Amino acid sequence: MKRVFAFLVLAATVAAACGGTNTAGTTGSPSASAAPSASAAPTPKPMQVGLVTDVGGLNDKSFNQAANTGRLNAEKDFGLKTSVIESKKQEDYVPNLTTFAQQNYDLVIAVGFLMQNAAWKVAKQFPNVKFAIIDGAPANDAGNTENLPNVANLFFKEQEAGYLVGVIAATMAKNKVGKATHNTVCSMGGIPIPPVDRYMAGYQDAIKTISPTTTILIGYSNDFVDQQKGKEVGLNHISKNCDILFQVAGGSGLGYIAAAKEKGVYAIGVDVDQIDVAPGTVITSAIKRVDKAVYDTSKAIKDGTFKAGDNSFNATNDGVGYGKLDAVVPADAKAAADKALADIKSGTIKPKTDLTVKP
Q1: How far is it, in rounded angstroms, from Cα 343 to Cα 268?
Q2: pLDDT (tens digit per residue) in 290-316
Q3: For residue 25, how many other CB atoms are within 10 A of its CB?
Q4: Residue 37 has what DSSP assignment?
Q5: Domain 158-287+329-346, what architecture?
Q6: CATH code of the region 8-34+46-156+290-313
Q7: How far, CA to CA in Å, does 52 sit from each of 5, 18, 114?
Q8: Residue 228 host element (H or E)
């Protein structure tokens, strides 16, 4: 199985997002959530899981935060010893993954598509250590992916979550609900990598299906961290009569939401439930259960059921969905989203994975 890893060259300025606690230096010793008491009686060595974030760090209220939540929940529920290291720049990926591998951790998790090559290098070097990568698969120096017997590839059907929030946006735009008066909706990605574009492709698909007359605009901040860049794109979209803004850009996307709040229009969050980021502005969120992927893979290590190769998280296994709804979202929009979710699970609806509207 090969897939072209076409976007690696864009990695220098990006990050997936996140929040959480327990951090460590970029290449220093990892931070463990719990340490055994010096006076405790000898016990069997707990299984160890290490998490390496992308460069967005643990405070972007999105992607990395969700991964860290999964780590902490797995630690609590399964008696694991877990640690996290934050990457500060792309060059940290290999040394950070290596730090855990050298300590013979039972599972090392790479958070993000941009770590495909780093995961490939370190997993090949440590064949007796198990790895997982979120949103990707190990990719060699030529950019081609390669399944490895010690690596689990954790993929999501982001297009399904995008479709669900697209149903809500389209219904509100079509019926001119609340501040959605211009029949124009928008989305912004961080950079054009597959997980980002799948979100927006599903969003566009739902809008074109439900409200063909609705205008769709799209843009990229070309960053997953810089909020000002996201805000600039948002203000530009709003100047073109956009009433609902869907962010798929991690920390940069918080700036996109800030633009919506400033100008009194609506926004849609991503990855985790972001309704509390800007109450009254964020009407819902496209949920991607990165926490579930980390939690389930950690459990598989504990249970001895680790599966190398592709693992899918989707609507059927509750790997994606949509978040809480603001009071402005009408009952018919919720009903339409719930029906779409049921239809996706049954296979009646298969959201598109390729963008139909491009920048």
Answers
A1: 22
A2: 999 999 999 999 999 999 999 999 999
A3: 14
A4: -
A5: 3-Layer(aba) Sandwich (3.40)
A6: 3.40.50.2300
A7: 20, 12, 12
A8: helix 227-239
Q: Return all residues near 36 (Cβ < 8 A) that are at least 6 apart.
A: 43
Give the model's pLDDT for residue 172.
98
Angle between helices 158-174 and 194-210 (to 10 degrees): 30
User: What does the domain layout of the chain look like in residue ranges?
Assistant: 8-34+46-156+290-313, 158-287+329-346
Distance of CA 178 to the CA centre of its chain: 29
Residue type at position 295:
Y
Give φ, ψ of 59 to 5 degrees: -130, 30
pTM for the structure as a whole: 0.86
**116/134 Cα distance (integer angstroms):** 9
Q: Taking 80 as the threshold, does the pLDDT of residue 16 lie above it?
A: no
Q: Residue 345 to residues 7, 348, 350: CA-CA distances in angstroms?
A: 30, 8, 9
What span, in angstroms and rounded, lies between the C-alpha atoms of 252 and 219?
Answer: 12
